[in-house]
From TrEMBL:
Upper taxonomic lineage: Bacteria, Bacillati, Actinomycetota, Actinomycetes, Kitasatosporales
Full protein name: Nucleoside triphosphate pyrophosphatase
Species this chain originates from: Streptomyces spongiae
Cofactor or coenzyme needed: a divalent metal cation
Principal place of residence: cytoplasm
Chain segments annotated as transmembrane: none
GO cellular component, one term: cytoplasm
Localization (cell): Cytoplasm
Catalytic activity: a 2'-deoxyribonucleoside 5'-triphosphate + H2O = a 2'-deoxyribonucleoside 5'-phosphate + diphosphate + H(+); a ribonucleoside 5'-triphosphate + H2O = a ribonucleoside 5'-phosphate + diphosphate + H(+)
Family under the similarity heading: Belongs to the Maf family.
Length: 206
């Protein structure tokens, strides 16, 4: 740690899960939503799509005059199931069909990350991948889960830290990446911009 003032950190995402993970890791980002039209962004593969969306969100927020000098983190997640990129379901009917197609199978949660240093004008990006093994919830359990509303707000129509947790048999890789942000990848990206993640920690309360 140094005596230099902490760099301002901005999260270009409205995801409360991403914000929560960053706060648990000792960071205290501000939230500025990019407003990027996600449907207008395309890419050949789910991993490339997640990265393109993360880069688009971070670049839009980094260009705002009010964030000059800050570090901006942009993220976006999609589920790769048989090569198809699945984001948030459009409605309850789609969420139900999605879960019926996923149960008993495995998919890869791809989360693109982009970190912009608005002080230097440099940015770096990368994608983290985690394999998710879905359980076999009954039709009744799927109906109850969809009725809760939760799957309509999360990529892939599931999350590890919510009501769908009992329906996930296990994962291979970083659990935080599935929730929304890979902290190890964020650390590596910051290091590429010559920023140590410990320099961004908030002081512990005494």
């Amino acid at each position: 740690m140094t005596d230099q003032p902490r760099r301002r950190l901005v999260l270009a995402s409205q995801s409360p899960a991403r914000l929560g993970l960053l706060r648990q890791a000792g960071l205290d980002p501000e939230v500025i939503v990019s407003g990027v039209d996600e449907d207008a962004v395309t890419a050949p593969t789910p991993a490339e799509l997640a990265l393109a969306l993360a880069e688009a969100k971070a670049s839009v927020v980094a260009a705002k005059p009010e964030v000059k000098g800050a570090l901006v983190i942009g993220c976006d997640s999609v589920l790769d199931l048989d090569g198809e990129a699945l984001g948030k379901p459009a409605d309850a009917e789609e969420a139900t069909a999605r879960w019926k197609s996923m149960r008993g199978r495995s998919g890869t949660l791809q989360t693109g990350h982009c970190v912009w240093d608005t002080a230097s004008g440099r940015y770096t990006s990368g994608t983290a991948s985690t394999v998710v093994h879905f359980g076999e919830p009954t039709d009744e359990e799927i109906a109850a889960y969809v009725a809760s509303g939760e799957p309509l707000y999360v990529a892939g129509a599931f999350t590890l830290d919510g009501r769908s947790a009992p329906f996930i048999d296990g994962i291979d890789g970083d659990h935080g990446n599935v929730i929304g942000i890979s902290l190890p990848l964020v650390r590596r990206l910051l290091a590429q911009l010559n920023v140590g993640i410990t320099e961004l920690w908030t002081p512990r309360e005494k």
